[in-house]
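Help: why these numbers?

___
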Amino acid sequence: MPAFSTVIWVGFGIFFGFVLWKSGIAMLYSMTQLPPEPLPTGEMRKVSRKYRCDSCGVELKMTMAPDEDPPPPRHCLEDMAEVAPLYD
């Protein structure tokens, strides 16, 4: 008769094998799905970009834009420089 600890180890092994198998199947399934369709042109998208004016130091944060990669806004008749976020 096997020891009780052996039965527990076999049970854990079967459980973790099942979890690995299910996660592997889920990853394979996710690779077969098509990416979502892009939004129609002109519809606003959520973005998180910060800009600073090099001339006067004004900063702004852009949260919505018609493109995923919007052009920089203009201030003091010059394009604003994009600022890398420190803690986002």
